[in-house]
Design goal:
InterPro entries: FmdEsu_dom. The protein is α+β, with helices and mostly antiparallel strands. It contains 3 helices and 3 strands; from the N terminus they run H-E-E-H-H-E. The protein has a domain of 35 residues. The mean pLDDT is 91.
């Protein structure tokens, strides 16, 4: 998920662009932080005016198939053969595709709320 946020926003962790010149113009470094004590998947704050939004995600809107549920323990424990791993990967990608293509604007899956950024 962090890679997606970085791609969409340009925000980066400690490995990001340090900026140009003494004022560090256009800096991206340390704009992406982890392990915050928040009650959402993530918080995003504008750098120019401080407005913030919390983002909650309910992936249960797109349930796991029974086949995916059955394969998960085998894949996670390393007991799945190559065919089972491949099938699980395909099912996983299909579920992600459903979320992105059919539920991206579903307010039951993604909840955005204006908030006050802590600190």
């Amino acid at each position: 998920m962090a890679s997606i946020v970085q791609l969409l926003t340009g925000a980066a962790s400690d490995t990001g662009f340090a900026g140009i010149g003494a004022q560090a113009l256009f800096k991206r470094r340390n704009l992406l932080q982890f392990n915050a004590d928040i009650e959402a998947v993530m918080l995003m704050r504008r750098q120019d005016n401080g407005d913030a939004v919390s983002i909650a995600l309910n992936t249960e809107i797109v349930p796991w198939s029974e086949e995916m549920r059955a394969l998960m323990p085998k894949v996670m424990s390393g007991l799945a053969d190559a065919q089972e791993q491949s099938r699980f990967a395909r099912l996983w990608q299909e579920r992600v595709s459903q979320m992105l293509l059919h539920h991206a604007e579903d307010s039951q899956m993604i909840q955005l709320k204006q908030c006050v950024f802590p600190g």
